[in-house]
Amino acid sequence: MPSEKKTALVTGGGSGLGYAIAKAFTGAGITTIIAGRDQEKLNAAASALGDHCYARQCDVSDFDSIPGFVNGILEEFGQIDILVNNAGINQKKGFTEVSTDEFIRILNTNVTGVFVLSREVVKDMLNRKKGCIIHISSMAAQYGLPKVIAYSASKTAIDGMTRAMAVELSPQGIRVNAIAPGFIYSAMTAKALDSDPERKARVMARTPIGHMGQAEDIGAAALYLASDAAAYVTGVVLPVDGGNSIGF
């Protein structure tokens, strides 16, 4: 549990894992700004999350808008103690069917957007010599997955960025870590696996805990990494996957 009042910015916070992370943060009394492209969805999420949550529109693939967005957050809230780079896009398509534009679009959102937003937030963190950045990685960076070439490339890049940022920024008081979610339950993942019994059997067979995770598991991991309990943790890519990444 954080020992002082903190402010967090969570991209893609209107639904899914981002929402679960924001819920964990607001539950711990952290002022949490959720950002994304859909203002209506963000407003509904912020309303559900309560008084500690604020919704602000941002498209991380619109690089030119990011400095102004971050400055606006800093003017309104004073500081950003925690940045969670959760926003991301995916595409399931055969390797040779992926167009160059499609590949670049996914890397722009999942990698370049993370870099640009982190760069702008870090400028303020450096002034205060403190801060915490959490990237969201994936099992696609832990082992090979078919038909997600751009996503796999982007999340592997995130792992490398996590380590490089940690080495450069941790001496300045800024910790940088990542979470690599395993198979997390949602209506979408359940439908996908239920419609493909063979794939579902493979997922369960190599997950030692024997069931899918919950979004709350990712929220709890993010809260830990953002808290003073993780003060000596940096440069880590933490699998939260029921053992899937080491399963046989």
From TrEMBL:
Keywords of this entry: Oxidoreductase
Every Ketoreductase domain range: 6-182
Entry-linked CDD domains: SDR_c (cd05233)
Transmembrane segments: none
Domain of life where this protein originates: Bacteria
InterPro entries the UniProt entry points to: KR_dom (IPR057326), NAD(P)-bd_dom_sf (IPR036291), Sc_DH/Rdtase_CS (IPR020904), SDR_fam (IPR002347)
PROSITE patterns with a match to the protein in the record: ADH_SHORT
SUPFAM superfamilies: NAD(P)-binding Rossmann-fold domains (SSF51735)
NCBIfam families: PRK07231.1
PANTHER family per UniProt: BLL5898 PROTEIN (PTHR43639:SF9), OXIDOREDUCTASE, SHORT-CHAIN DEHYDROGENASE/REDUCTASE FAMILY (AFU_ORTHOLOGUE AFUA_5G02870) (PTHR43639)
Stated name of the protein: 3-oxoacyl-ACP reductase
Organism: Flavihumibacter stibioxidans
